[in-house]
Amino acid sequence: MVLGGTGKVGRRVVAQLEELGHDARAASRRSNTRFDWNEQSTWADALAGAGAVFIMPNDADDGAQLEAFTGLARKMGVRRLVLLSAREYVDMGLTVGITREEIVQRSGIDWTILRPVWFAQNFSEEPFLSAGVDDGEVLISTGAGRHPFIDAEDIAAVAVAALTEEGHAGRTYELTGPRAITVAEAVEAISTTIGRTIRFVPSSPDDYVDYLVSRGLYDKETALLVAGLTEYIRDGHDAHLSDGVQQALGREPRDFTSYVATTAASGRWTA
What we know:
Layout (H helix, E strand, L loop, with lengths): L1 E2 L6 H10 L6 E3 L4 E2 L8 H5 L4 E4 L8 H12 L4 E5 L2 H5 L3 H11 L4 E7 L5 H4 L1 H9 L1 E4 L5 E2 L4 H13 L6 E5 L5 E2 H12 L4 E4 L2 H10 L5 H15 L9 H6 L6 H11 L5
Helix pairs in contact: 1-8, 9-13, 10-11
């Protein structure tokens, strides 16, 4: 069972599971199997018969929902949990993210934790970057900071391995791409590939918050959180590489240019 099965990572987990012949159940508020973190009455039906669960947590949960969910999963016979976390949660000491990991670790079920960095797909599927690509100007406060963007297909591949194979229980995989690049370099790669001019526009954190709110992309609280992450990148704290993909899959992660080529071929950035 894949929570958030219609989201950026979840739908890729479902697709890869099905390609391998597994019975995959997407569960979300918009899928045939309905699951809502805020409606506990939907949980049991979504879990029924599931041997392994991919968990996309509720961003608003302080841990109480996840604690109750893992308890129910254990009672219903789930044998494996794979939690989507983030490397920044630990690196930046974000209590809520760390608490979620600890809840899964003490659930009494075999667990695997995935800690990806920013998705390459943010440039095509997440408004704080994709809206700028569409407009021809990507305004953001990362400056010259580098980041090792991870392809969501690789995150999904690691999740699938953890859900279906032996040898991943008790493991925490930090997931990055093979190299760290600036947002300006990422934008240039997209622009060159699709043959359309896209500019990188550097911004201060305060101006970036105003931009996100004025464009209606996020509320003020979420915009402040995103701006805080961009400052972390700008200051060079998030540039280091991790080898979780190599550990879990025995291969190198996809490069950002591979993501760009695939996305351009799909027509996503067609003017």
